Amino acid sequence: xxxxxxxxxxxxxxxxxxxxxxxxxxxxxxxLDPVTQEHGTxxxxxxxxxxxxxxxxxxxxxIVSISLDKAGTVEEIPxxxxxxxxxxxxxxxxxxxxxxxxxxxxxxxxxxxxMSGVATATRQAVKAIEGTNASIADTRKTLPGLRPLQKYxxxxxxxxxxxxxxxxxxxxxxxxxxxxxxxxxAVAKLRxxxxxxxxxxxxxxxxxxxxxxxxxxxxxIMLDNMSCEEMREAVAITNGRALLEASGGxxxxxxxxxxxxxxxxxxxxxxxxxxxxxxxxxxxxx
Length: 286
What we know:
The chain is an alpha/beta fold. It is 34% helix and 20% strand.
């Protein structure tokens, strides 16, 4: 069964970066003169290789050169990001010192397997809503330190990125609204602080709040944990005056029905915080 794999860059970047380092000079130096210590790296160019094997399916990185503490090169990457592969496909071949390859193996595979899982889950969601006007988006529910990679993997799978951080757009959720004295008051206070280029998204929990959000003139309205019937009614009430985003409790089983309500965006935190990793391994050929 074919599947999607994501992330060009991760395989080699992780493999090589995890083993990156500096080579100590053989010349003796005193402890009183540490700044004169000589170090060096060797620039790797595409051409040599060592084999990597896939147990499941995934997409591959394209890297032309990188610096290592030992000579090593990427010989072949037969796939591109987002391309479907099947069990048993060889996704990359790398040549290098055995020690260097083994030092970077676990880190590289951990990242590659996870990112491929993110891209694949995203592609499956995108396919599930084909033919509707909705698009799939991620959230800020990413793993610490991995946000850039996870959000890239989502785009490889055909999804779109929601906010990268709090500065990308202003979003008022339930706690903000409650603390701000209600929808109208919270939006008015926020507008006093924002520049003219910043959009406002507001989370609503009922059709009554939807009406208040439309009166406040926000750009995007998030329909939080609403039923398909409520979302369908919200689409009719809004009538194009704002973008509508469905969020909360969305599963693979409900995805299609939600998209068919007419919402513009379906955001899914599960794309980055709870995907299943691919089964990929690296094998050394003698």
